[in-house]
Amino acid sequence: MASEPSTPPGGGAGTSTQAQTASPGWVKLVAIVGLAWNLLGTLAFFWYTVLMEMFVTPEAMAALPEAERVQLQLQLDMVQAMPSWVTWVFAIAVFGGVLGCILMLMKRKLAVPVFALSLAGIVIQNIHSFGIARVHETFGASTFIQPALVFIIGVFLLWVAIKAKNAGWSR
Known about the structure:
Helices cover 78% and strands 0% of the residues. It is mainly α. The relative contact order is 0.14.
């Protein structure tokens, strides 16, 4: 006599679809807010990789007060000295975050490795910024605040994606 296949805890295929669609509203809210945050990161990416040199002309620099001109020139010098691999890591961090949020909105398990890759990009970029380029020596201790926030949000988004995957809210 053939035995029935065992049903996993929480029910069979029908209930896993119900559990998946019954994810809490806060997961979607986190994904939407995370997407907005990461889209701001894409603006920063394009500012540093393309737009800064396009819009910061000698005329624009000359119009700035001396202190702002010096600060902006330091930023320009830092961006121009940045190795290309750091730009790639920056892109992985930012666009990985955008893709991870989209995948989380689509309730896809693939959000987990995408967020993990994005977080790795954040860590590597910070290792370069603070361990190699030592930007805090030029711009001060306040330069730790934004990267710390980016790291915390990256960890949080990864945690939510893992929680959604483990709870059966994603497929």
